[in-house]
User: Fold this.
Amino acid sequence: MNHATLIERLGRIVGPRSVFHETGDLLVYEYDGSVDGAVETARPAAVVLPTTPQQIAEIVKLANEANLPVTPRGAGTGLSGGAVAQAGGIVVALTRMDKIIEVDKEDGTALVEPGVINLELSETTLNDGYFFAPDPSSQRACTIGGNVAENSGGPHCLKYGVTSNHILGLEVVLNDGRIAWLGGNAAGLPGYDLTGTMVGSEGLLGIVTKALVRLTPAPEAITVMLAAFPEVETASAAVSRVIGAGILPAALEMMDALTIEAVEPQYHAGYPMDAGAVLLIEIDGIAEDVADTAREIEGICLESGATEVRIATEKLEKELLWKGRKMALAAMGRLSPNYYLHDTVVPRTKLPATLRRVEEISKEFGLRIANVFHAGDGNLHPLMLFDRHKKGDTERVLGASHEILHYCVEVGGALSGEHGIGTEKRDYMTLVYTGEDLAAMAGIKNSFDPRGLFNPEKLFPKGYMCGEVRALRAQALAQKHGIYPI
Amino acid sequence: MASIQSNSELLAIDGVRATSTLRPSSAEEVADALGTADRDGHAIAPVGGGTKLALGNTPTKLDYLLSTAALDKVLHYEPTDLTLSVQAGMRFADVQALLREHGQTLPVETPEPERATIGGMIATALAGPRRYGSGTLRDLLIGISVAYPSGIVGKAGGLVVKNVTGFDLMRLHLGALGTLGVIVSANFKVLPAARHESTLITAPQGISDAFASAGAAARGRLRPISIEIFKAGDGWITAARLEGRPSTVELGIAELCGAVAADRVVQADESWAWWREYLHGQRLTETGDGVVLRCGFPPKTSETAVSRIQTALVAYDISPEIWTVSPGLGAVVVGFDRPAGGSLKPVQDALLAHAENVSVLAAPSDLKSDIDVWGRRPETVHVMRALKAEFDPNNVLNPGRFVDRI
Assistant:
């Protein structure tokens, strides 16, 4: 199918004004939120902005006919290249499907379109006493569909779990253009958990057209605490002691000295400028319980060497403490023109050692690295500061990133806690998974999408093309029996 | 190679007999056994503690049982990380005992925890009343290793509490009844155990009063971890379980007693034992000639659903002796004697008019022949069949027992 025909046929499905194909219009879809240089960029043949599941079904059928890859896209805030176009493929941008179809107050669920913005869902449902718990830092812009694709996390995942824990059912367009429902809000639905399989599949298995999400009752009381420590180690020890005492805060975040240096002069959140690290701790629940827990945490922090503990109960005070954390990335602009935000996870006990290693790497590569992260669940976000116009800077960042990933995997961690693999980390997959592991994952891809229509060349390492599961298995078996192909 | 047990321990599933039981002692031995069966065209049913063998359609073929009993080791436990990795054959009670030493828990439950294994609990995914307040294994499973009929062992996830490295095979195998692979080990996020618990139990009352009590409990400031309604004689009892720090639980119970007429309140170990007994009543091991059936529906329709299910059952002359309702979860489980008509088909069909799904958790094998015990056929069954064809192309694992006789 030639380009003109493709554009014309897409126009017939969604209307010509909802198809982009001029170079200028396509440019933005070559990127997502990730750093230039860390992920490959590519120009799609067309971008379509459908408004109904039926239109998406037709687009998928057309893509099958034309044998073109399809990349679903939400707000494009992802940091691993998952929504970046495939060269010459079709991008299905879901931002116009942004309706909250129904909020079920009784059962605490909401039926939403994939383009609904994360924060808007919480703001809307708060009137009914609910919120949507996953709260990635990009929540002002990112969409529920994107959250589903990446299985997004956020500070409050410590207590409430990641996106997957909050998705009850999904309407999806499958590879043959069929529209189907997975899961739902009833106990004992039959068959494999395709909903759970779809969440976090990075757009490789289908396109989500509706999501039935679980809402979380808004807590009666919320207290935010700030604890300042002389260094990261003592703060880490306090984190372990809080968890060890059987307390599960709603959020438990850490920021190091460099982050404080970026944030405090800009947002005046009240973080002590001389602290080596601060912990931001949120606890929620019924008022009496929250008060008791706050006092207990205060005691633990002071015993662990905190130089100062503040307990905020007033709305403005709490918001200000959070503002520093939420705006930390934006504040980095004060220190450096560019930053590369990394996302890895290590077992919580390995946090202090990992942070020490990050510091060493920072020196080795001559890069400033700020740390702002979800300490409660061991999810690190080293922020590497650089200037991409300076020769060699991007390469040094990628080199440091490589070292950090290797170290995290070595101590039993994972490649990504909440940003996904996409193209950014696909070639690192063999660090954590064997050919056998990847063969099993490829089996899922093959079952949903044997032709490799959806988001090909993402998630799986190069050379592990998804269609070649049998070859992968044969390879794995050969390795197992010590037989290697000649 | 896996040892082969003598014929004295023969087991059958729904009357279909296996010739012997394989007892592999490592993940690799499980994979080898599956690889061999795949090559030789044999069918295998994985078995843990055998407490939920009633589940599933009648096997279309069965040559060997594969017991995970020898895979009973703790692979990794780091209390400060709140993570645990155990082999699939470890008994749930042993897992909990280990965690309890460190004040931690896997906040899920099963009948017969001394027998039930971790692998079996994952494969069957039958959640108990705690699902209301603390979720299920689905929320706690962070990594898994699975042996496949291709003869290999594949893992996914890891030992960190947050992980988006690749597809979520954990959820694929959860509730798959071992039809895609045999779970050999699993990693969990564990949680601090609650410091205290109490349960409010009402006297038997009318069904609408029982629902009113459940509703009042659900609206309480301290959200219960479980709310259940069950039939006792001619009446219905509501039970609500609260957990937390002692002062909080006391406060919650005091407030709850203001909203719900309590018959009694049981605390701490007594509360724990009460729920254990409650779950024991739901075991699927001694159902004999009886039928256990579960209906699922949106939680808010629970009261209507229960009344319609009652009416529908009466039409078939069925008056269940067991009724347990989970109003916050949208589930009712009923237990009754073999129906006079000799078929469950019309009963299941009639109930499907009032519920999203109706599954038969246990029934005499002859009653399973003309129904799909899993209930309604999912509209994505073609994807499920494709998954089966990918992971188990020669139907080695539990052939016929899963949804749509996969």
Remarks:
- The longest strand of chain A covers residues 221-229.
- DSSP finds 17 helices and 20 strands in chain A.
- Residues 245 and 431 of chain A are 34 Å apart (CA to CA).
- The two ends of chain A are 40 Å apart (CA to CA).
